[in-house]
Amino acid sequence: MGKIVSRGLLALYVVLLIWLVLFKLSFHISSVLDYHHRSLNLVPFAAPSKVDGSINFGEMIFNVVFFIPLGLLLNVNFKKIRLLPKFYSVLLFSITAELIQYIFAIGATDITDVITNTVGGILGLTLYSSITKYIDNKKIDLIIISVGILLLVLFISMEASHLFNRRLLR
After folding, report:
1. In degrees, to the nearest 5, what angle opens at C-alpha 62 toward C-alphas 56 and 66?
2. Among 29, 91, 120, 167, which one is least packed by beta carbons within 10 Å?
3. Residue 107: enclosing H or E segment and its boundaries?
4. What pLDDT is recorded for position 77?
5. Nearest to 116 by CA among 47, 164, 14, 35
6. pLDDT at 42
7. How many CA atoms lie within 13 A of 95 on its CB side?
8. CA separation for the pair 12, 158 (Å, rounded)
9. pLDDT score, position 55
């Protein structure tokens, strides 16, 4: 039962990441597909978005934080697989998402996003490995799955509330 729940949580999290990275959490896919602006930045950390003339590192921090659970969930679900293949999975996911953005012109393709997403995944992978040196795997897995489900329910509730409020305002 625990394995089914953890795999399901991983699958839902990957879907959520795809929705976040490709569609910016939009319910209206047409607004994303109508974007038609293709940009490519291959210079790392060269173009952090500017707000009021100062550099905004918020998006980079958000990318790192949002990919930490991916690393944690990969470790919960694939204990027998070594660190390097899991690292490559995070890197490949991030590169694929950025390439899809470029190909379909649905966002800005940026090497900084690949780097920060991957750093987040690595942090999740290493955090899990570090914690399991001191605490039993099963306890950590239960905590990660419980917190993950709680956060997923909270996120879905917030998005449903937001969608409901938007419909009321129409």
Report:
1. 170
2. 167
3. strand 106-110
4. 96
5. 47
6. 82
7. 7
8. 16
9. 66
* Number of neighbouring beta carbons within 10 Å of residue 65: 13
pLDDT beneath 50, residues of the chain? none
d(CA 3, CA 42): 39
> What are the pLDDT digits (tens) for 36-60?
677 888 888 776 555 555 666 888 8
Dihedral angle computed from the Cα positions of residues 12, 163, 32 and 46, in that order, rounded to the nearest 10 degrees:
-80
Which residues have CB under 8 Å from 72's CB, separation 6+?
Answer: 124, 125, 127, 128, 144
pLDDT of residue 167: 65
Q: Name the CA radius of gyration of the chain, rounded.
A: 17
Number of domains forming the structure of the chain: 1
Tokens of 53: 């003339």
Give the separation between CA 35 and CA 105, rounded to whole angstroms.
7
Instruction: Tell me which amino acid residue 88 is.
Output: Y
Distance between CA 94 and CA 98 in Å, rounded?
A: 6
Q: What is the pLDDT of residue 157?
A: 83
Tell me how far apart the alpha carbons of residues 70 and 120 are, in angstroms, rounded to a whole number.
8
The mean pLDDT of the chain is: 85
Which structural domain, as residue segments, surrounds residue 129? 2-169
